[in-house]
Design a protein that fits this description.
The complex is a heterodimer of chains A (319) and B (487). Chain A is 74% helix and 2% strand. By secondary structure, chain A is mainly α. Chain A has a single domain, classed as ABC transporter involved in vitamin B12 uptake, BtuC (Orthogonal Bundle). In chain A, strands 1-2 form a two-stranded antiparallel sheet. In chain A, strand 1 and strand 2 form a beta hairpin. In chain A, helix 2 packs parallel to helix 7 and helix 6 packs across helix 10. The two termini of chain A are 20 Å apart. Chain B has a 6-stranded mixed beta sheet with strand order 6-9-10-3-11-12, with helices on both faces. Chain B starts with a strand and ends with a helix. Chain B has 2 domains: 234 residues, P-loop containing nucleotide triphosphate hydrolases (Rossmann fold), CATH 3.40.50.300; 246 residues, P-loop containing nucleotide triphosphate hydrolases (Rossmann fold, 3-Layer(aba) Sandwich). Classes of the chains: A mainly alpha (319), B alpha/beta (487).
Chain lengths: 319, 487
Amino acid sequence: MKQILGILITLVAVYIFTAVIGDNFLSAYNQEQLMKRTALYGLLAIGVSFVIITGGIDLSIGSVVCLVGCGVPWLIVDHQWSPTMAVLAALGVAVLIGLCHGFLITKVKLQPFVVTLCGLLIYRGATRGLVDDRTLGLGSGFLEFRKMATGKIELTEKFGIPMPFVFLVIVGLLAWVFLRKTIWGRYLFALGNNEEAARLSGINTDRMVTLSYVICSVLAAFGGLLFLLDGNTAQPNDFGNFYELYAIAAAVLGGCSLRGGSGTVLGVIIGAAVMQILKNMIILIDWLKSNMEFFVVGVVLLVAVIADELVKRRVRRQK
Amino acid sequence: MLIARGVTKRFPGVVALKGVDLAIAPGEVVSLIGENGAGKSTLMKILAGVQKPDEGEVTMAGRTLDVSSVAAAQAQGISLIHQELNLAENLSVAANIFLGREPQRFGFLDQKMIRTEALRYLAKVGLEVDPELPLGHLSLGKQQLVEIAKALSTRAKVIIMDEPTSSLSQGEVETLFRVIRDLKDEGVSVIYISHRLVEVMALSDRVVVFRDGENVGELGPDEMRHDAMVRLMVGRDVSQLYQRTEHELGEVVLSVEGLRTKANPDVEIGLQVRAGEIVGIAGLVGAGRSEVLEAIFGMTPAVAGKVQGVRPKSPCDAMALGLAFVPEDRKKKGLILDMTVEENTNLASLRSDARGGFLNREKERNLCREMTESLAIKTPGPWQKARFLSGGNQQKIVLAKWLALSPKILLLDEPTRGVDIGSKEEIYQLMEKFASEGMAVLFVSSELDEVMGMADRVLVMREGRMTGELKRGEFSEEAIMNLATQS
């Protein structure tokens, strides 16, 4: 609880502020949209937080989103695969990508930043070549399939919980159980804090690190699939652009240290929500140009990180 | 000339210095002795501006000394030569001597000046090497002399040497002593920190003894005797510190054959330890002792060789053979500092206690309670982060982590480094207890007293190879040092 208190206060403050100044912020439609986008980015953020907890980083998330977002309609529309097969193929490719990252980082001993930076370039470039830069989508069909992202659980006539949010809750719970209730979660935190000491305690650190990259890529693929089903159109040159940075920012806002060894699932989800409310706020506030989104997000992130560091220092001094 | 008054330094969980006084006269060679963790190195780091004191002041020739940074201390004539040399091995000898204070002409390095000045200072320490040579090409002993040349080039009035001989050969030690005597004649004061009491007696005008962060006594030239020094250091007779019983030796439980470590791949090492036996490995720093333990435990897998008939490729493999390893650097390799006492205690045994991968919190709590009681670990609670415990208690947590697996063989690398005297005694008692319960204990130590006090048998290493084996009864500081340094 103590770990997420800061981000929780931020969430409430930003939420109230935006509700007060923005006319339509509290409308059922806007709230639904907010939940949906929080869920989509939250899934990516949970994925990357596994990697960040080990002390690593994954910059290839946006490109994996692109690969899946373009690859799935390409398989279904251009090559007449069934949606099920296409999704399984996408997840399979994501597992392979994660294994590759893990292998290069733990066995070849390359730096995570470099490996996944190459991934960022390779998967996007490959996707663009694969589909010849065409804009892809599922067209007017596959409505049932698209309900995974567009459907909702109706609570009232106007308001329902979007399906992606349901997925976020499920994935969040699974991630929380994994990180807090299983030995593997404990191992991830241990090796994120001190990989050598963890290895000397008999933990197969290489395997755990690889696992974290697989989880990250699979969640990126799952997120990419939902992004596609939601928007129903994907342009290979910009689909998923910068999404890894949104995910990393949400994770950091939510209390993950890039030094590794700390982070909570709930914090990361709240971090993702704060990012989305900020985006919303920028659109709703007249005197802020909407093209200054990155500016606002950057400033908020910086302030949050500085505040966090100051609080930590204070705690340390009291001890 | 140099006077420290009431210097106090606190670290999380431990007071390293408790209001210490120390005075040094010009041209005096003062030795500082004391157990690991007694506060010698901390005081020296404060004098040299590496660490800031919490209380107290330092004066030189009556003026308060600014010891807020290394550069400030150096400018005022204090130079510290670290135990681990602080030199850039890729740079040349001359560049190292003037690192950070390079003579310049019009903003460019004055290479000619650097060369001639370097030669002058190298001559002072009796070192005949080409100043252009990369430092890494020199032996450790010669690098040590380069450090001294560097200290001289800052016109140091006080040179502090922290364990300078721990990695030197006999010949290099003699050269170093000659240089120290020359310095003394020129009026430079030397503070000499060492564990080697023989050297201390040969070299110093005065001995200052530290124990648990306090200056507990000084000995003049006529009082410097081995037993007197040890009694002050330990606070009691040594025989009390190492309470040994006769061990009943069982069958061989650790057998290492043809082990070639990565550091010394051309040398084959073989050794055996019996159940209930405590075996010590002695030797100079850099003799390859830690590397042997690390290879046995699969931490740095051996190039070749067998442990219990197989070659451990990872700590996992070694644990399956019943091995446990307490590494030298507990902060970097033994503990997860930001995890709790309970989490650290359980780290190695999690897998065997888990049900289908899920943590068993009750077992974790019980194990932690059991271990804090039986090893007398002092912690405010199981939730405390390991970072905030004292060295001795941290070391006990590392031990607890392994005891949870009931290992047959316990490997320890410098088991009492940086722990206070009380914890030291407790760790010795634990080693003794493990052995009497039938565990095989193999430990590496740089403290001869410790090796001779605890071991049933001592193996001595030099330059990667085993140079001898001594049984209890054959032990003496001289015999071990001969095997460790003969060339």
